Amino acid sequence: MMPTRKNYSQNWLPSIFNDFFDNDWMVRANATAPAINVIESDKDYKVEVAAPGMTKDDFNIHLSEDNELVISMEKKNESKEEDKENKKYLRREFSYSKFEQRLVIPDDVEKENINANVSDGVLTIDLPKRTPEEKAKVNRVIEIH
């Protein structure tokens, strides 16, 4: 979609505020959130999170009490170049990124066997499915005595 140019005539100030808080602006502000793919096969679900430059230490993955897979990431970068004699910063750059995503786990996932790894800039979480026999055990009919 091509951006449109607004006509800021006499009421330019309210229009600027409307544009600033517009939903499209909010979507652009969240553009730093990593892309996520969810893939289903007969044997498992895979969650892929774009994570360029991230290591396994930058992630925290856990299961919540609400049966959600919680993926959080936090990355801090700081780069310094200083004058060694006078200790003045000639240049100092730092950045901070934080992200959290919650995904509801399907009932057929073996929660005990979920695993994850980071490779080539992608965090991959494998959620194996229960076998038909395991599903039958979980969904068994309970006899009333």
From TrEMBL:
Pfam family for this entry, one: HSP20
Family per record: Belongs to the small heat shock protein (HSP20) family.
Name of the protein described by the UniProt record: Hsp20/alpha crystallin family protein
Organism: Bacteroides gallinaceum
Domain SHSP: 26-145
PROSITE patterns: SHSP (PS01031)
UniProt-listed InterPro entries: A-crystallin/Hsp20_dom, HSP20-like_chaperone, Small_HSP
Domain of life where this protein originates: Bacteria
